[in-house]
From TrEMBL:
Family: Belongs to the dUTPase family.
Region (Disordered): 1-20
GO MF terms held by the record: dUTP diphosphatase activity
Annotated TM spans: none
Organism: Dendrobium thyrsiflorum (Pinecone-like raceme dendrobium)
Record's protein name: dUTP diphosphatase
UniProt key word Cell division: no
Residues annotated as domain dUTPase-like: 36-84
GO biological process: nucleotide metabolic process
Keyword set, alphabetical order: Nucleotide metabolism
Keyword hit for S-adenosyl-L-methionine: no
InterPro entries listed in its UniProt record: dUTPase, dUTPase-like, dUTPase-like_sf
Length: 85
């Protein structure tokens, strides 16, 4: 295969944010409503979201649906996508 010198390779480095650019830090605020509540956690450092845990032992039948208590109050920052499913 012939090499084409007109093709440019993308830069392998990610540009750093300059100090003039605003940095928006959105924090997820979580409050435990009982001693059974478990704070959300990430499955790994590369996870895109947080995992929620049940605050009570509940059995959901196969192909069933149920409301599961987390005993958490969560404030989602503005301009942040949140989904529980």
């Amino acid at each position: 295969m012939a090499e084409n010198s007109d093709l440019l390779e993308p830069s392998p480095k990610i540009p750093k944010l300059s100090e003039e650019e605003p940095r928006s830090l959105n924090f997820l605020k979580v409050k435990k409503l009982s001693t059974n509540a478990i704070l959300p956690s990430r499955g790994s450092s590369l996870s895109a979201g947080y995992d929620l845990s049940s605050a009570a032992e509940v059995k959901v039948p196969a192909r069933g649906k149920a409301l599961i208590p987390t005993d958490l109050s969560i404030a989602i920052p503005e301009d942040t996508y949140a989904r529980i499913g």
